[in-house]
Amino acid sequence: MNAEEVPEQPPDGESDDSGIGERVNAVFTAAEKASQHIVSMAREEAEDIRREARAEADALAKQLRVEGDREVERILADARARGEALVDESRASARKVEDDARIRKDRLREEIRLLEERIAWAQEGLREVTLRLFPGDAGPEEDTEPEDADR
């Protein structure tokens, strides 16, 4: 080594601290810039995640609305079908009641007709008995009362 190659020593025993300080400052500055860049990237990534989450939430909400609408339509269709079945069943029951009432009415009319026949038969029998009891006389009150006065 010659004299020109030997680094000069600072006077009074100072070392080359200012160069180290500048390098440390440069490292800190680089670290701050890197941390700011990392924070910026993290914010951007967080915003991307938020956007994706919103998009997924919107898509899920839309899907759930569609499924909900389908379920509502299915429930309404089921309710309509049940309602129609109840109406049909009620109509059938009403027809049966009407038919039963008509049959009952016809039976009652037939019973009334038979009772009228029995009454007529009984009246005829009473006339015959009266004629036998009072031959030649039609009966004391029969001539004055009409035959269908009860009806």
Commentary on this structure:
It is built from 1 helix and no strands. It has 151 residues and is an all-alpha fold. The N and C termini lie far apart (161 Å).
Keyphrases for this structure?
77% helix; 1 helix; 151 residues; mainly alpha; single chain
Major sheet summary line:
none
Q: Please state the structural category.
A: mainly alpha
Query: Given the structure, what is the number of helices?
Result: 1
On the 0-100 scale, what is the average pLDDT? 85
Oligomer: single chain
Poorly predicted runs are none
Share in β-strands: under 5%
Query: Shape, please?
Result: rod-shaped
Count of beta strands = 0
Quick overview of this protein structure:
By secondary structure, the chain is mostly helical. It has one helix spanning about 15-135.
Explain the layout of strands and helices:
Blueprint: H1 17-133
